[in-house]
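Now for one record.
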Amino acid sequence: MLRSLVGSEMCIRDRLEGEYLERGPKAKFNTTDFSFNKAHGTKYQVNFSKMLQTNKQSSKSRSMRRGDGTSVTPTPAKKGAKKNSKNAVAWQWWEKEEMTWQHFADEDAGLLEAAYKSGSPIFVTKNLSFNKGYDSEYIFDFIVMAQMNNESGTSRKIARKGSGAAGEADSDDDDDGYGSALTAIYSSKAKASGDKFCVDISSKVSASLASKQKKVGAQSLRGGMKKDYGPAVSKDKHGSKCFDRILELEADFSGEWAVFYHSYSVAALLYEVQAAVAAVLFRFKSEFASLPRLLWGPFEHIPTAARMLEEFPKWKDRDHNKAFRGVGLCGVSSLLAHDSEAPPKSVFLMGYSVGPLTGLLERLLQACGVPASQVTKLTKQIVDIAGNHGLDCKAFGGKSCKSGRSGHYLQMFIRRDLVDKYVYPAFPFGVPDKSRMKPSLSKYLEQDTQITGQIRITANPDIFLRATCVRMFVYSADPSYHAKRPEFMKRLTDVLTPVIGTKAVRAKAAKGIFGGTIPAWWTDDDQTKAAKMPASRYATSMLVDEAESSDESC
């Protein structure tokens, strides 16, 4: 008979024994059907091969035994499932299929701890217990806390925790925070006036400044910055190709534009859906980039970087505050500088997803005007289409990407005369970096010196939707999705167009997005065809001719 060490009730023994006989000794399944769990409804995983019972909410595991009561000690899996020694620092890796933390084997944990204490941010090794017989090279990045198989390109999140630490998902990632902030955004009663947000979109960048900056060149290579992609990207064909293209665009856009970078993973599907909706309603060029913020509500309170800096002292949790998450992006000002929080050379291929975002896509679609009767069906359709094109949709109940590379990098060119209005230089956690504010961030970025440091952006849709103000390009770490993204965005737009295809529904959608008040410049015509723009025109530093794009003016 089977019994859990935490309970000896006959019903539990009978229940587990029946499952064991029916499913077999290697079975693994989830259940809430325990007598001690009736008042809680917590999901537990029962794993007969390892004789473990795991609370899916807390990730705490307990041993089980069967028959004469002899304990069954689980054999460490090749991936290193054996828990670290009791008094040691715990090294863990994230199992995305089960959405739980797993422990590295003791010998691997010891190796990682020694490498971590050496002070080097990068550790490359083949000497891992689960790697015996394979001889694959693994790269461990202790800044972003991730590991990558340098042959297959697959990556995982890792964690270093104190003794006895529970294996709970970390939700501090920038896009995880956006997901949680959406709940507050949807329930907010704030109403935004589109006219109040309207900016003067005419360029104030002089021809002489643009010419001078063009000669200085790519922002990330200024001051003699070495063109070093790091050990992971430099050995990866897809990663190197993406970085080459990023620097090409930096050089071309260096005249009128400053460039910034934002990393994300979990919220990718939300960003993509927002881009597709914006293509239908506002002529957003979704074939080139995702859209990190769409709903205007939060920007009524914080429309600019200046307002964000006024509010920042009130936030004890700094840039983890929901008010920031609703409007702000964390980013860096160089592709190649080794910034302390999210250096592109580490983050791009080491992207990861942690934690579910159940229900958020449905709420986003409702906020964007999709009729309630169609939300559930449309959500499933979108998740399925995204998964079939290679986008990691595990957080939304869909497929994981095969490579394990769920990260994305957004390259954002912001017109130089708009930088100080919407961007401020920052230390980790969003603390203002006043040294780069003297006299201003825009002046700092004009220098021929090595550009470094983090930034925080107020991603106001009023400029992010306009190609005359902001140009964006997205790069996905998963090579399959990166190649298929244009096809996916076309398919996604085709799916959304009939749903918000009537003028009445489009007007309702725009009203919801603008927080109740439709701005005077908006038109209820279908903008899908008008949103199309050839890459030869969009991917050039030449500003869009305003006369040809009515959506570019208020």
Observations:
- The two ends are 74 Å apart (CA to CA).
- The first helix runs from residue 10 to 23.
- The chain has a mean pLDDT of 80.
- The CA atoms of residues 503 and 524 lie 6 Å apart.
